[in-house]
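Please check this.
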Amino acid sequence: MGGLTWRYADTFEYMDRIRAGFPPAMICVAVNGGIQGKETHESLPETPDEIADSVAAACEAGASMVHVHARDARDFTQGARRIDEWLEVNSKIRERCPDIVVNNTTGGDLTMSMEERLSCLDAAPDVASLNLTPDMSRFTMKARPASLPHPRAETVVDACIPFTYGLVEQFAAEMKKRGIKPEMETYHTGGAWVMRDLIEHELVEPPYLIQTVMGAQTASYPTPEHVLALLRELPDQTVWLCSGIGPFQLPLTTLALSMGGHARVGLEDNLYYARGRKFKDNAEAVRRVVRIAGELNRKVATPAQTRQLLGLPDKPNNRPTSRKPA
């Protein structure tokens, strides 16, 4: 696919890339998330079979990577904390979509311990998310009605996931031991300090997969100006993936595609196709971004091309491992 990485914010490299053509666009689908569930959207998958079905439809629509949150079978409002739950979800996804790049979250939910966040790594994903900075938020969670499993009342959340340099390094080291590629998630320009720390400690290897998360609370404002500020801080040999939260998903993933970057869509980040009209499912979100990529003269990357783009092995990482007890 030719040169696959470059300085996205460099004027002359951008013009050269427009003339030569960008590489195929990687489409990542974030199918569920660890907090909201069917109380917000009836098509948001919770069980392993629902997740696998949703991934299969999104893969058929054009997604080459899936970002997934397994749920706790004892309480679907919580993220999975046990390796067997992660193994079931990953195995069902791979039964349906053998080649798709599986990206497990270490973000989990708002209540789990740091040790519990690492449980997904033992299920042998190809990629795992790696938050680079503390994550602070305050919002109201919609009530989960009695018609759904594990109902709960409306809840006001005021929380912070306290990632530190040491914790981020620990997570990256656990991924490196297993041959799992970190997806470094940066919410603001402060994440650049942590990227460089990881590179200096040889805990991440190029090409670096870096996601800019736009529109989350305490993140950079979701505007083109702030995207460019983030891009200027990215290291060389970066593969840039962009996500936008809620109404910012469409403009900012379109911006990323037009700049040669890659797009993340899905019901974790955005429930609405347009004001007053929800997506039917994750596949519809993928189909729209595939159409947009086509209008921008971007081919859509296959799972095999995505593996090449990210420097991953040709075959999925499907051999579970176990950590020694802490």
